[in-house]
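A reminder from the course coordinator: this example appears on the midterm review sheet, so study it carefully.

Given structure:
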């Protein structure tokens, strides 16, 4: 790949074999180089391709206004998610994460730290993403000698969640509110204080996250598998209350999201509700 334009020491514009324009980032990738020179591929840590004019404008603006270290930290986060969780973040999320890191550090150097109003929800509904947020938080604190509170780990987790959903941060807020409303319905219906740390509760929340994605975007991966044994167990236990609670959830979803749950989806909810309520009662 030969350099067509140098943006700064860490970024250049090149063309691939098909002639398509690419923006390439790499530590010192343009240092001592001139237009027409080959780039050192071993220095590349990020390549942007297939962007429209608006995306290119945003990308160039972010490159010009942001120190390379923040792109590198964002890439470390992205690389670890890909390696350990097989999560691929869209380029748009990579950019917003980079911008967020730069803005947060700028505030942190002035002693200005933000409260995260969704911190409890992130910790309890998205523990995996929060775990990586804490790891990224340590990277920032070590790199810049700052003392970010855990709220910042929550903000970083939101960008990861948005990347998983494939949409913007507003979509994350909507998914969190959906999970909160459904779990609240279960709490009020049974007048139980559910254990947010229990395995059955976490499985229920995980199911709601996947269901939200399926319901809103029609993801093909939604499936239930063979439920015959689970359904039989619920019938044997005669847990009519779990089924009736699932029907209340069906009404709520239909009224608020114009989505009609199938009989199988209702039964699957009943199975989860049966498990979390039974586990909660057994602990008392």
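Designed residues:
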């Amino acid at each position: 790949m030969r350099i067509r334009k140098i943006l700064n020491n860490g970024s250049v514009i090149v063309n691939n074999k098909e002639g398509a324009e690419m923006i390439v980032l790499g530590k010192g990738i343009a240092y001592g180089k001139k237009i027409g020179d080959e780039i050192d591929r071993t220095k590349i840590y990020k390549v942007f391709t297939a962007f429209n004019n608006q995306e290119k404008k945003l990308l160039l603006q972010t490159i010009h206004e942001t120190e390379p270290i923040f792109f590198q930290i964002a890439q470390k986060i992205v690389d670890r998610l890909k390696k350990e969780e097989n999560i691929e973040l869209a380029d748009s999320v990579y950019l917003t994460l980079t911008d967020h890191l730069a803005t947060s550090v700028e505030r942190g150097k002035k002693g200005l730290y933000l409260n995260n109003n969704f911190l409890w929800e992130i910790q309890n509904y998205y523990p995996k993403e929060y775990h990586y947020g804490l790891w990224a938080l340590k990277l920032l604190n070590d790199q810049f000698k700052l003392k970010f509170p855990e709220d910042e780990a929550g903000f970083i987790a939101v960008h990861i969640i948005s990347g998983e959903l494939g949409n913007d941060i507003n979509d994350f807020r909507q998914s969190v509110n959906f999970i909160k409303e459904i779990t609240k319905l279960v709490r009020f219906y049974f007048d139980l204080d559910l254990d947010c740390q229990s395995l059955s509760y976490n499985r229920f929340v995980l199911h709601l996250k996947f269901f939200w994605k399926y319901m809103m975007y029609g993801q093909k991966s939604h499936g239930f598998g063979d439920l015959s044994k689970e359904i039989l167990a619920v019938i044997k236990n005669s847990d009519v209350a779990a089924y009736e609670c699932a029907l209340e959830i069906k009404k709520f979803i239909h009224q608020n999201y114009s989505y009609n749950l199938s009989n199988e989806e209702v039964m699957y909810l009943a199975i989860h509700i049966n498990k979390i309520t039974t586990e909660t009662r057994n602990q008392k």
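The radius of gyration is 23 Å. Residues 169-190 form the longest helix (22 residues).
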